[in-house]
Amino acid sequence: MRTLDDLFSLRGKTALITGASAGLGVELARALAIAGADVALVARRRERLESLATELRASGVRAEAIAADLGVDADIEDAVTQTEQRLGPIDVLVNNAGIALVGPSERYSRDKWDQTIRLNLTAAWLLCQEVGKRMIARGAGGRIVNVTSVISSAANPIYHGAGYSAAKAGLMNVTRQLAVEWAQHRITVNALAPGWFPTEMTEGGFAKEKFRTKTETLTPMGRLGDPRELQSALLFLTAPSSGFVTGTTVFVDGGWTAW
Ligand SMILES: NC(=O)c1ccc[n+]([C@@H]2O[C@H](COP(=O)([O-])OP(=O)(O)OC[C@H]3O[C@@H](n4cnc5c(N)ncnc54)[C@H](OP(=O)(O)O)[C@@H]3O)[C@@H](O)[C@H]2O)c1
Description:
By secondary structure, the chain is of the alpha/beta class.
């Protein structure tokens, strides 16, 4: 009989996760370490990454803080190269870094649009490409998880930000495209779509009582998520036993998309 480890263990695997200095990325990085992966933590705020790396190492895995601005192409290639030099070839990529610049569409500036597309879509795409080509050359398969949003497949009735909607929908379909192209290399590419969670990204919105109440009301579970509630979904998508799951989106949203 197979064991839980046969199904889910990432021991001996190397994972790179972006946006690991705050919010959902911290809990997703912890999940990778719980499953035994060695983890490269990528974001701009180095001290926060160092502190999480220290915590993860205490649990028995290797962890490295890699400071990078994913808005800069050269930083992306450098983060991948540094990960491979310090931890070995990448088996798991989690594209989690993101920004949400809001504003009504009639006044949504070109700068907000460009910044949002640049980080949420282009940086994730460049990381998929950089890591994917190395996975293909190595021939050992791999797992790629792109963190999208419930706003990848529907409009946002509360927090308006057309650039965010476009980027997340684009990332969802890039996920499908890569899944189809790279299935022959045993690389699975899936999306993890959160509903609403309290983080730095959302604190401004949830600080307004009427927005928070509306968010909770439109979520069938009637509450915001706990970031740890994303961990099991990530481990499902990265599991060695999930090799037939590709091109799909797992929503962890308290039922937001079920209406
Ligand atoms: N919170 C939610 O309710 C929610 C809902 C749906 C989807 N999501 C998605 O979940 C992901 C994580 O969101 P979150 O709520 O955890 O956001 P968050 O708390 O604002 O954290 C964002 C992370 O992205 C990193 N980041 C931002 N700009 C970066 C850059 N230029 N280069 C490198 N890293 C950068 C930040 O690190 P540094 O500032 O240190 O660089 C931080 O680690 C995002 O993709 C978001 O769209 C969140």
